[in-house]
Specification:
By secondary structure, the protein is an alpha/beta fold. It has 23 helices and 15 strands. Strands 2, 3, 4, 5, 8 and 9 form a 6-stranded parallel beta sheet that branches. It has a 5-stranded parallel beta sheet with strand order 12-11-10-13-14. Strands 1-15 form a two-stranded antiparallel ribbon. Helix 5 crosses helix 20. Mean pLDDT is 84; it is low at 1-49.
Length: 511
């Protein structure tokens, strides 16, 4: 059963006053790093595995509250021996994280893990924001650097830049040897090829660094480190958090709300090769963009559409929601870039759901205009979607904005998600376009009944670890399997003592 009424409880708390209170509400996952008593996210009874049966019917009121946790709660604290990083490292690790916000968060998490594996000192990751976002604010402009370094002090050593090396009375900066890691490189690559170059040169520079470390690693502690980075250490800067909270408060003042990541933008449509629904002039733009940015590939629209490779149109999104029982009073926050095709595609959606908002329509202030450019705007959308009562991605591929959000919402209390199965839905929409509309909504509901709504569930390829970190980053107080048992509540003190002990021994040796 779902825990009815959670969204109403959350709504009461979300209106708290003061900047400190806002940080706590927005950053629960970060503030309670490694503390395993997130009582908000679990029920008193437990089971050893998530529900394996799909629901027989969809109750709208249940979707507005969090999914059934099955007795699980988030926990990324170590559960076996996890010594602090040695004082002597093998060198410095620099990385350049390319892509959008989601790719960068995954890359940063991978970089921390790579540094741990290699016993390296991590240089604050570089964000390749300029080429994608035309934004050069970098890590300092988006994330709370002090919090990032402090949160991970038990795991890796982090510096903001490679220090100068003193040799023969002269200061000389270590030059990092540039390497291009293989895609989804195994741990062995880092402990051999990369480590050898690091020891030879004192520092290495891995670029590009997106999807450069295998996601499926048979070491739960390594996976939990990724969760500590992604859901605890990576906290946005205070002004982004404050602005996000302001938007959430205004939306929730009128009741619960849904957020939708509407991925109907030029880059995705060009990548998918879904051209035929556009005018000749629009097709020309899409084809040119594809030629300039993606590898040549034979793409036939009808074939792509039939197997669910095309992003859902705004109207299709609206029809899915209507079939699930949502009506035109539903408040929807849209997280999206510029929609390709404009109002021609948005009007059918708006006629079904007129109460549409985005960060510009909710918050009219100079602060908004100043703080939602480039990556910061994506960060605000990320936080509003994270805190919304329901989240719906329309295209959740492995490099998409929604990928990390789905995992974050799962970790943040099994928050309801609506994930359309595009492949299963495609023939239903194709039949509708051809005039076969009998039992249209019933057909959609049957497909949606077989999807996951945010409950803990087994990760099956091609689902990403960053989309679903169950079971590695979750635990049970009353677990049948010892591996699933929650670590002690004083784990943070234990790790702090280990770190102090290591520092004391090192200082004694130096003395």
């Amino acid at each position: 059963m779902r825990r009815a009424g959670f969204h109403r409880q959350h709504g009461r708390h979300s209106g708290g006053s003061g900047f400190k209170g806002m940080i706590v509400k927005l950053s629960v996952a970060a503030v309670v790093l490694l503390i395993c008593t997130l009582s908000l996210f679990y029920s008193s009874t437990g089971t050893s595995s998530p529900q394996s049966n799909y629901r027989s019917e969809i109750h709208l009121e249940e979707l507005w509250s969090n999914a059934d946790s099955g007795g699980w709660r988030p926990s990324s604290a170590p559960r076996t021996n996890w010594p602090p990083p040695p004082n002597e490292s093998n060198g410095y690790l620099r990385v350049r994280c390319n892509g959008g916000l989601n790719q960068q968060r995954s890359a940063i998490s991978n970089a921390v893990l790579a540094a741990r594996i290699m016993n390296a000192t991590l240089v604050l990751p570089e964000l390749d924001a300029n080429s994608f976002w035309h934004d050069d604010s970098g890590f300092h402009g988006i994330y709370d650097v002090e919090h990032f370094i402090k949160t991970l002090r038990y795991d890796v050593k982090i510096v903001e830049s490679i220090p100068e090396n003193q040799k023969n009375g002269k200061k000389k900066k270590i030059k990092a040897f540039q390497l291009r890691p293989p895609r989804d490189a195994p741990i062995s690559w880092y402990t051999t090829d990369a480590l050898k170059k690091m020891k030879d040169h004192g520092a290495i520079y891995l670029t590009p660094f997106s999807h450069r470390l295998a996601e499926e690693i048979d070491n739960p502690e390594y996976q939990r480190l990724r969760c500590r980075v992604n859901y605890h250490a990576l906290r946005f800067k205070p002004h982004i958090m404050k602005l996000s909270q302001s938007i959430v408060d205004k939306l929730r003042a009128q009741g619960p709300f849904m957020s939708i990541h509407l991925r109907f933008e030029m880059d995705m449509l060009a990548f998918a090769g879904c051209f035929d629904i556009f005018t000749p002039a629009e097709q020309k733009i899409l084809k040119k963009y594809r030629e300039e940015n993606f590898a040549p590939k034979r793409l036939v629209y009808s074939e792509r559409r039939a197997i669910g490779k095309c992003p859902l149109t705004p109207e299709e999104v609206g029809l899915i929601l209507r079939a699930l029982g949502f009506d035109n009073s539903t408040r929807i926050y849209l997280a999206a870039g510029e929609l390709f095709g404009g109002e021609r595609f948005m009007n059918p959606f708006r006629s079904l759901f007129p109460q549409l908002e985005n960060h510009s329509s909710v918050e009219h202030s100079e602060e908004l205009a100043e703080n939602t450019r480039g990556l910061a705007g994506s960060a605000v959308d990320y936080m509003v979607c994270l805190l919304s009562d329901i989240f719906m991605p329309t295209y959740d591929g492995p490099s998409n904005f929604a990928n990390n959000l789905l995992g974050h919402r799962l970790y943040y209390g099994f928050r309801t998600t609506i994930r359309p199965d595009r492949k299963a839905l495609a023939p239903i929409f194709i039949d509708r376009e051809n005039g076969r509309t009998a039992d249209f909504e019933e057909a959609i509901r049957k497909v949606m009944l077989k999807t996951n709504f945010g409950e803990p569930h087994k990760r099956v390829s091609p689902e990403s670890f960053y989309t679903n970190s169950w079971p590695e980053c979750f635990c049970q107080t009353s677990a049948e399997n010892p591996a699933d048992k929650c670590p002690p509540n004083d784990i943070l003190n234990i790790m702090n003592n280990e770190l102090q002990k290591a520092e004391t021994e090192t200082n004694s040796t130096i003395s």
